């Protein structure tokens, strides 16, 4: 991680789960971290879990990634105060548990807006910053096993993931689109997709609690591995599953 010392990493959805675990790991590795979240007070609270001398390296910025204006305001602040973005981790995501055929359309639209368009909003701004400053940056996309195939719910439970797999399949497509565009534009910017299996996070439907499970720190470790590879190495897709997962 030496190449990222004192560089700026933006982590979306940093208030809990994988985002919170990763924000702390990046700060401990010498990176300046901007944690974007709607619940910004939770990111502020993460500072208390860091050594005193590192707490100033974590910046909490309020942002709703599904709102283009909110994203623009957050990234404007980052560029004005910290100079630009070197790493972007698109971690923010959401899920309303229910059936696609019967649940409110505004909930389905919200999932689409946050999980897919939020990634586009943030990545456009981060890419612009990297390209303008000629930085060989890194964009990480938090994907899912459901971005590769539709998993059956455990036991006799109803399928409750609705739009979530749709958006994660979209992330799989964005990964390759971004890789081709970054290469075609002659940049040295990397893009990586991380696809966790069942992970203990706040959005996990309750029916899945009976399954073997990963912890947010397990996924953060995978992201740190991808970020720590040499400049000529690009981890395209990394899938992380718990032992015994039935999917």
Write down the domain tally.
Answer: 1
| Inertia-based shape | globular
Strand order of the largest sheet: 3-2-1-4-5-6-7
- CATH topology assignment: Rossmann fold
Short overview:
It holds the Pfam family adh_short. One of its GO terms (molecular function) is oxidoreductase activity, acting on the CH-OH group of donors, NAD or NADP as acceptor. The chain has 247 residues and is α/β, with parallel strands linked by helices.
Please, could you describe this protein's structure?
There is one protein chain. Helices cover 39% and strands 15% of the residues. It is an alpha/beta fold and 247 residues long. It has one domain: NAD(P)-binding Rossmann-like Domain (Rossmann fold). Strands 3-2-1-4-5-6-7 form a 7-stranded parallel beta sheet, with helices on both faces.
Chain-wise SSE layout:
Layout: E1 8-12, H1 17-28, E2 32-37, H2 40-46, E3 58-62, H3 68-82, E4 87-90, H4 105-132, E5 138-142, H5 163-184, E6 190-196, H6 216-227, E7 237-240
Parallel strand pairs: 1-2, 1-4, 2-3, 4-5, 5-6, 6-7
Family: Belongs to the short-chain dehydrogenases/reductases (SDR) family.
Organism: Drosophila hydei (Fruit fly)
Protein name: Farnesol dehydrogenase
